[in-house]
């Protein structure tokens, strides 16, 4: 096994476009869960409508990409309202059930034959990112010695990390304002906040919308990064990756989702590469190469369980802040 | 701001007794009611938890709501403050109907409640707890918060919060987490936080529950001080001694109905009240409704 | 205790992996995917791209004979996408198999991938629910209707058939979701892994009934074993995961996340152990339909329905008349009150988990018989189960039964007008309406859920 190349692959994925995109979506989840205490198990649904927001606007309606981003944001707002209106007045577990269900249903609707004219059905959409590529100012890739990126990666990275920075700034400003104080109060005890004259439902809805918009922007970037979107890449597992990242980094912390995403991608790639290395020299005890992908999902599940049990505060979190109670 | 809080039960109050001369019968009309409720009903499953025909609360008094366990005191409280929904009935505060309003809307009208189990926001600082209660904050709107339009207002709120914390002797704790306070201090914080809303009426749900006996006198002093500042206080309590000492008026609830009303001396001699207290079971009917499911 | 928790988790994973590890092919060599576009004729110049996850692995263009191939770096799961824009105007991509396929490439394998073209308008209707999805190349087509409603029959008889199929499906949901509802009632925890407990039952029965190691027993004893194992899984989860977590006062929200993690773990351990293909039980595959007037039903589905009804009645009698059953209902109704009136709440919770696990496994076997066994079957059933228990009233056993049947019926009837894969959407729509109108469900007590 070539440890240097394994390490370089892991490092590359930790700072690459995918890690940035997941960090952005995890920032949205941090808004929901980390600060507000909302159990959103369907963040992938926001990513899906975001990705298709750009793809469909550009391809079907011939709009420019910036308008596609606006459409993504609009779709996320609609989805948040759809989820929030029935559930945000109820106990936290109802939101959890609805989010996990609605995200999956959104995927099924987007891949259904009835939606094919708009979404391309199971085939998804391709070729909507040409305008984005044409605007790429990078002509050469970047070689930093141990890691290197292609020009197209660099262009996505600029946008993705740029949006991550912007989202982080917005989150920092908001959470250090009276608005953030109300949000944190809701996480602590929403009845108390209600007794002080705050419209808890409205704040929860704003939180759901804002976090959902970050998720949708992440989805739009996924589309631009891959040049293609298909419904089936937005499986429920994506949400659980985001949860693992958020909890690994530290929920309720400004930098938690970013650190979590980078650390998680580093570890996942390391894990993948080592397993592949072992597989190639026939050292895998129980399973063959094809199972590596599934193994990864299983490991993410295990990480979630172990994190909650042993280190609910993650890498940078405050243990006390994480002991949030269900209301 | 207030007199020495330890002379809570002192008979010679500086303010006139606003409940003098009202006839001690259930549902009696008061000369200047701040809260007026009619036909409030709420049942859980088949069991009626609250069934109050008429209730008025006199402005500027301390009114106690008492009754055996499961009499429906807390439920009535929740109904009046918009934290639960009535099956039927209507009620007005300062002459305006509160029916159908949500909890936060009732609070904005000026009727602010506390909770039996203190809801100090434990993982926020004492100061943040206070600031959260200020009304009409620009910074609590999303855009206002983002654009930092709130710094002047925040400074003014902070000043008011410090004054209130001084009054409740919590000013030294202002930067500590609310969770690090003792039970009694949390009750004080909750009361101070309620005042931060600038209410016309405070509704205290068992303010003495779980408080160190040494602190009870100080708490009582603060409650009378509220009244002496012109505020109306309605509180739920079941410790008779506490109630008799500070209440101007007492409303007795049993099995969801008002069985007696009057000033402490009337209640002390009311045989119905004594029966209700001795004869009632200690099960909570609201919790026991679902056995047939 | 922490250490024991981890040890148990790891032991479970290792045991499952060890017992069912697939044989790894020894032969080395390059792996690739290849194919030839030759239906209806050989077409040159079609672009085909291979992805791994989101990453592009390679590209190929068909040669004059319609042939293409892409070298792969290693075995694994790949997504092969045919660029539809490169298809000449006179053709469209036929579906199935569609223009995008998931393939699993094994060590040393030269994997052939089939794309078909067809003149526009002549491609197979993709909306028709087909049951022949057993080959590996089919994309994960979840939620295909098992009713197999033939569009050539008159509509009224379609309705009758769909109603029957819906009742059978609803009974399956009901059996599976009693545990989900009672577990919520007793512990206030939503067991997101419940769907995967369903899959576990179906997979175990499949293993016992097909694997030579177990003598390829017939389905009935295999199902019994699966139900016992499902019960043990429930007991084990409660005893070694949930009870310790409760004793440590882990907040409910955290428990939800643990259950999500557990579901992800269980689902993918099953995937690794048994593969991604759809399987059918060897027994009761093809049967003559029993016909009675306008109603016809296969003996298989009739038996499922009758057995499910028997199980539901038995569970109902148990809850109504036995001590443990009454205790279960009492704890589900009010845990604190039950505890203070002398019920051993921990023991009752343990039994609820055991019963819930066993019923989920049984539901899994039924569902596997009704459709097919697949590693994602439980997750999709979970969404329907959620809809059912919320409709019936979260925390009540009878509510779960009634809600499950209604949801199964509605979901199946929706396939008369809409594609089968959307039936989950209708179930969820009902759930959302219930949450708006009567959040406590049909049979739930009006209480504070907000």
Task: Report what the structure shows.
Chain A: It comes from Murinocardiopsis flavida. Chain A: It is found in: Cell membrane. Chain A: GO terms for molecular function: branched-chain amino acid transmembrane transporter activity. The complex is a heterotrimer of chains A (327), B (293) and C (450). Chain A has 327 residues and is mainly alpha-helical. Chain A has one domain: ABC transporter involved in vitamin B12 uptake, BtuC. Helices cover 71% and strands 2% of the residues of chain A. In chain A, strand 2 and strand 3 (148-149) form a beta hairpin. Chain A is globular, with a radius of gyration of 20 Å. Chain A starts with a helix and ends in a 5-residue tail after the last helix. Chain B is of the alpha/beta class and 293 residues long. Chain B folds into two domains: 5-120 and 189-288, P-loop containing nucleotide triphosphate hydrolases (Rossmann fold, 3-Layer(aba) Sandwich); 123-180, no CATH class. In chain B, helix 3 (126-133) packs parallel to helix 6 and helix 5 (151-167) packs across helix 6 (183-196). The longest helix of chain B is centred in the middle third of the chain and has 17 residues, at 151-167. The radius of gyration of chain B is 19 Å and the shape is globular. In chain C, 50% of the residues are buried. Chain C has a four-stranded antiparallel sheet with strand order 3-2-5-7, with no helix packed on it. A three-stranded mixed sheet of chain C has the order 4-1-8, with no helix packed on it. With 450 residues, chain C is of the alpha+beta class. Chain C has twelve helices and eleven strands. Helices cover 52% and strands 11% of the residues of chain C. Chain C has helices at residues 2-20, 155-187, 194-210, 219-247, 252-274, 299-321, 323-333, 335-340, 345-370, 377-392, 397-414, 423-437, and strands at 31-36, 47-52, 55-61, 67-72, 76-82, 92-93, 100-105, 110-112, 117-118, 290-292, 295-297. Chains in contact: A-B, A-C, B-C. Chains A and C meet through helix 4, helix 5, helix 11, helix 12 and helix 13 of A and helix 1, strand 5, strand 7, helix 5 and helix 10 of C.
